[in-house]
Amino acid sequence: MKIDKNSFTPLYLQIEQQLTEKISAGEIKPGDPIPTEAALCEIYGVSRMTARKAVDYLVRQGRVARFRGRGTFVVEPGEQQKIVLPLDRHLTASEVAQENNQRIENQVLEFRRTPASDEIARELNIPAGTDVYFMIRLRLLGDEPFVYEQCWMRADNLPDISRAAMTSSKYAYLRSKGFQPAGSTKLISAELPSNEIRLALNLSRDQPVLHSHAVVSFTDGTLFEVSDVYYNQKNYSFSVHAKVKS
């Protein structure tokens, strides 16, 4: 396999095109691994960065999927369809998983009780320095990390909340304690993630995330939680039902 280093077509695109042709021709079948970045460097005589960009491009196209600790594999056509998350409903990650018939796993990366910063206190309408729970969770659908969540929850309502409880559905736990989440106010943006979030979601350096900043309230109007949720854009798209003003 050769590439033209004098061509105006970038080297990574030439590699991607050759791999795409092999996938389309069935030379590399669904479920088969593609060559590693190190192997691509040797095959084509390119840098590790060029090889990585070629693989990243295939991932963004949905032709291959990375699996941490295993490698990068060709996927079945249509297998990489995105989950559509409606903005006009407050769907938790657990509810999204249930609606799409998929298994969810919660990895609690950090959980501690801490004084609320001025900004978090303002958003929760509590005095600065009031105790809140701070949590970081990574949520996986099957083997694929799809949500990185940071949240701050009021501690006065739930003084006995535990790290172990947060390995399951957070809102199911709240309901079991007699609290009823009513909904949230969200701000949605697309942005390049921090290195910590990028690595957790198994993204390349130039892949953006969908960022949701939300404030959650209970049915009695109490503001309970501030969250920053980062969605793996390989898995999600957003929709909203907009009504015409009569």
From TrEMBL:
<dbReference type="InterPro" id="IPR000524">
    <property type="entry name" value="Tscrpt_reg_HTH_GntR"/>
</dbReference>
<keyword id="KW-0175">Coiled coil</keyword>
<dbReference type="InterPro" id="IPR050679">
    <property type="entry name" value="Bact_HTH_transcr_reg"/>
</dbReference>
<feature type="coiled-coil region">
    <location>
        <begin position="87"/>
        <end position="114"/>
    </location>
</feature>
<keyword id="KW-0805">Transcription regulation</keyword>
<dbReference type="InterPro" id="IPR028978">
    <property type="entry name" value="Chorismate_lyase_/UTRA_dom_sf"/>
</dbReference>
<dbReference type="InterPro" id="IPR011663">
    <property type="entry name" value="UTRA"/>
</dbReference>
<dbReference type="InterPro" id="IPR036388">
    <property type="entry name" value="WH-like_DNA-bd_sf"/>
</dbReference>
<keyword id="KW-0238">DNA-binding</keyword>
<protein>
    <submittedName>
        <fullName>GntR family transcriptional regulator</fullName>
    </submittedName>
</protein>
<dbReference type="InterPro" id="IPR036390">
    <property type="entry name" value="WH_DNA-bd_sf"/>
</dbReference>
<feature type="domain" description="HTH gntR-type">
    <location>
        <begin position="9"/>
        <end position="77"/>
    </location>
</feature>
<dbReference type="Pfam" id="PF07702">
    <property type="entry name" value="UTRA"/>
</dbReference>
<dbReference type="Pfam" id="PF00392">
    <property type="entry name" value="GntR"/>
</dbReference>
<keyword id="KW-0804">Transcription</keyword>
